Amino acid sequence: MKKYKALRNECNRLIRQEATTATAERIVKSGNPSSVWQEVRNILNPKSSKKISLKIDGVETSEDERVADLFNKYFIAKIEKLRNDIDPKYIESPTKRLKKSLNERRPGTLQLRTVKEAEVIKALHDLKPKKSSGMDGVSQELLKSISSVVFVPLTLIINTSINTGVFPSPWKKSKITPISKGGGTPWTQRTTVPLPVTPQHQKSSNRSSNGKCEIISKKNHLFPNQQHGFRQLRSTTMALTSLIAEWKKIYEAGLHTGVLFWDLTSTSRV
Prior knowledge:
By secondary structure, the protein is mainly α.
């Protein structure tokens, strides 16, 4: 019995040790602060494999196809309402203000050039080892592990897309997963937002070509300093830090700051 207890205790110790090591590795490999906190949340609150139970008008359903259909109709109706609520007099060309700000400045020709195999390899290596996948079932973790095999055909696809101006149709399709923001069960549509997962090949394509676009944009000051999203070396942490610094500067000057907030939970993932 003593030998059994000793082996049992040693086994439990090794399990705890491996679990601690694995948890530390997951956090370290997360990368940026946002991913770190997401990983911490996943560790503290593991995802449940239970079916989604949706309650509408007092009626609760957990049938997969029925739940998916209800969410699909709800998300589509939500976007249609947002579009219909836009006042026509405020609709304008997305490049109108940019052209006006440039005036007679000539930023040069924006030409999207083809990518090299080395750039695609780097883009694949820079992918985070996430297990989520789009409609094709290929995760970033899998794509990264087979990068030495797929970088040649992937380079050909990307360059063909650039040369022809046609983006691959399969890469435009997303797998939508409803995310509950309200907590508890059953879920309700009002407290749920759609999370789209695009094919991972698309991300490697974007990483390969985005660098060139950003260089031209920086060189010609096409982005305002206040924009932090979708820019290298800028994050939500930097955005918040710069915002607080600006408020502090205004406060020290004896002035007041007015803040206007928009709820974009319905539009941030469409």
